[in-house]
Write a structure and sequence with these properties.
Length: about 400
């Protein structure tokens, strides 16, 4: 640290100023702000979630749920009057601007209609296509081709463009689960990208060009928790590691998904899928704790679907077989969930395994089929204004900036 230019004390040139208040833009500023906001929420009677530090809940007959991202705050609950009362209380401590019903939050656009809630990132996607000069590109049907990426070909002289494109695509996976596997693949070459990797990243942009208005639908229906888990055994041609993938549905609504390379090499397809089951079970457990924090109880035990009978048997059988001695104990905790009747396993044929879209390179027909099974869609009216959306009768989401 050093004194700012133009304000150096000639008698004490090596001294620095001691901050008595956190300044906006410093590394510790968000932390200091959150501590102050959290203290105010505690005064109002809110309880911090044990699973998500940014989630606070005011429990009661009409609960109020607050989600915080630095100084952007989402307020929701079954009673609009309770939400408004909280915003008024908050405005007595901090300068608050009420932006009304949720319509735009951190690049995510929200539309309400008679069908349900629609989340998408059309504006962010259009900006990304314009910045990468791909707004006039020819669309394609799949985000990746049939050829696996490797380390052959010439290195890029300036990898900045590649890293910028991939970084922008990573944020799009928040509302585009069909991109997760493709983005996972191209992210593995960030250190030394080659020409074929840049072509693959631009192919993803071409795919996005043809699905600009796509997003996730959230509709009313059953409130059962189900998940699909799968793994592609030794799919990585360099390290022979497997890729895990899962989908978690709340009724017909997709609420969580992942495509991630496993940390170690699996010695069999059963082991690879068993590890994927463990990751999916951990995600379900976390979601279950979030539901508990907001006083929501599931009517049925969550169901986890897998297309490998051996992995299901291994998860349900408390006996350690000789073939599974090498598997870490951490992955066997899913047996405890089964014995405690907190999770059930069901077999699904490979043809109907939705998580396939997150674990391997797929043909055009297979990709289109699996994509059709997801709650992905487009806006009914793309010209619908972001502002002035109709509020839901049973619930109101408020966006607050402090």
């Amino acid at each position: 640290m050093q004194q700012p230019p133009g304000f150096i004390d000639p008698s004490k040139p090596h001294h620095v100023c001691q901050l008595r208040k956190s300044l906006y833009g410093l590394k510790q500023a968000p932390r200091a702000w959150f501590v102050k906001l959290f203290q105010a929420l505690l005064q109002f009677g809110f309880v911090q979630s044990s699973s998500d530090a940014s989630l606070c809940v005011l429990k009661g007959p009409s609960p109020v749920i607050v989600l915080v991202y630095v100084d952007d705050i989402l307020v929701t609950g079954p009673s609009s009057s309770e939400c408004n009362q909280f915003i008024q209380k908050l405005s007595t401590i901090f300068p608050v601007k009420d932006l009304g019903p949720l319509h735009y939050f951190l690049g995510l656009e929200v539309h309400r209609s008679a069908e349900g809630l629609f989340l998408h990132q059309t504006k962010y996607l259009l900006d990304l296509l314009r910045k990468t000069n791909m707004d006039g590109a020819k669309p394609c049907c799949t985000p990746l081709g049939s050829t696996k990426l490797d380390h052959t070909g010439p290195l890029l002289s300036n990898p900045t463009e590649y890293r910028f494109i991939v970084g922008g695509q990573q944020y799009l996976t928040w509302t585009r689960p069909d991109l997760s596997f493709a983005v996972n693949q191209i992210c593995q070459f960030m250190h030394a990208p080659r020409k074929q990797h840049l072509q693959a990243a631009k192919r993803v942009l071409r795919y996005l060009k043809g699905t600009i208005s796509a997003g996730l639908w959230f509709k009313k229906g059953s409130l059962n928790l189900t998940a699909f888990s799968n793994a592609d055994w030794a799919g990585c041609t360099f390290h022979r590691r497997s890729t895990s993938g899962y989908y978690v549905f709340w009724g017909s609504n997709l609420i969580s998904w992942s495509a991630k390379k496993q940390s170690i090499v699996a010695r069999s397809s059963t082991e690879a899928k068993y590890r994927s089951l463990a990751h999916t079970a951990a995600e379900i457990t976390w979601i279950y704790k979030i539901f508990s924090d907001i006083d929501f109880s599931l009517s049925q035990v969550p169901t986890l679907w897998c297309d490998n009978i051996s992995a299901i048997s291994l998860a349900s059988n408390p006996v350690f077989h000789a073939q599974t001695k090498h598997i870490e104990i951490d992955y066997h905790y899913i047996r405890e969930l089964v014995l405690a009747k907190l999770l059930t396993f069901q077999f699904v044929c490979s043809q109907d395994q939705l998580a396939d879209i997150h674990t391997k390179f797929l043909s055009k027909s297979r990709f289109s089929y699996l994509k059709s099974k997801l709650p992905l869609g487009s806006m009914v009216d793309p010209k619908l204004s972001l502002r002035g959306c109709i509020k839901a009768d049973t619930e109101i989401d408020k966006q607050v900036v402090s």
